[in-house]
Amino acid sequence: MAEASERRDAGWGRTMTYSRKVFIPLTNLCRSVCGYCVFAKNPGEPGAGYLSPDDVMAIARRGERLGCKEALFSLGERPELRHPEARGMLDRLGHASTIDYLVEMCGVILSDTSLVPHVNAGTLRADELRKLRPVSGSVGMMLENTSRRLLGKGMAHHACPDKVPLLRLRTLEEAGRQSVPTTSGILIGIGESWEERVETLVALAEIHDRYGTLQEVIVQNFRAKPGTRMAEAIEPDVEDMLRTLAVARLILPAEVSLQAPPNLNDAFERYIDTGINDWGGISPLTADHINPERAWPAISELERRCAGRGMQLAERLTTYPAYLRDSGRFIAPLPRAALRRHARADGWALNQAHQACAGAAR
Hints:
The chain is an alpha/beta fold. It has one domain: Alpha-Beta Barrel (TIM Barrel), CATH 3.20.20.70. Helices cover 39% and strands 15% of the residues. It has helices at 2-12, 53-65, 84-93, 98-112, 126-132, 165-177, 194-211, 238-251, 299-308, 321-325, 327-330, 333-342, 352-361; strands spanning 15-27, 70-75, 116-120, 138-140, 182-188, 214-221, 257-259, 278-282, 312-316. Strands 1, 2, 3, 4, 5, 6, 7, 8 and 9 form a 9-stranded parallel beta sheet that branches. Helix 6 (165-177) packs parallel to helix 7 (194-211) and helix 7 packs parallel to helix 8 (238-251). The radius of gyration is 19 Å and the shape is globular. It starts with a helix and ends with a helix.
């Protein structure tokens, strides 16, 4: 942990960052059946389906008023390939696929709001990434684990065609070929061994070494949820998270941001001692739809706990400063213009007071 912290300080200084986001769950239908998931619903369940364009814009507008800068689109993977009902919903929305609908909504967000889309759409083909790149500041996809063993019967990824490790690695590699700033990560405590955990981190490091597009890696701890196949599974404890985070910081290239979600452990300030430099997206409006039982900490609480560890809290954008500095390569014109309106000279986010004054002047 001490070595990992030194490595963090050398690369990132004594600053912890977060992104002020609004969470837009475009659809909770999915063709996979992960053993730990409560986000995905089946057709006919209360609340199952797609957000309408009006729903999307209502969430985005409320987020704008609260100072959000990132629109985090999260959605189930390719539900139309499993559920005829999803196909019917898409037909009524005027789209052939979930990804096509997502592209439209990202474009509307960019043109009609000040928010910058970040897209968590799971596995993506090359043509789909080419459609999303012009309307998003970054994409995200948790690798989770590279072990095919977890696809076996009774394991966390059984009956999950989009969790095949090769498909997820191909998505990260294609994002690299297209110079798309990307977020990925591992999910610990889902039945993997320590060796498999380390192999997954090494795979992420190798992708960044080849393409330079992995802007951040998340280490997320599994949380057991009632009603899932893994409801009785043992959750990783704090010590497990500390060990994994420190190992991640030592394996990953120094310029890759290391993130841990602060809402999944009450003693999250201890993570700072492992070399992390980022808390991820924090929303003042919407819940963590993946872990709805775990509320986000207040920004003031994050700031207080960071200060207790000798760290300063700063707001960032969905795209990190290094990619903004070389924005001609990494960011398409529309999201680039939106990001520049939000960014300070050093690439971190303008503070809210500055933005409020700018908005009043406009």
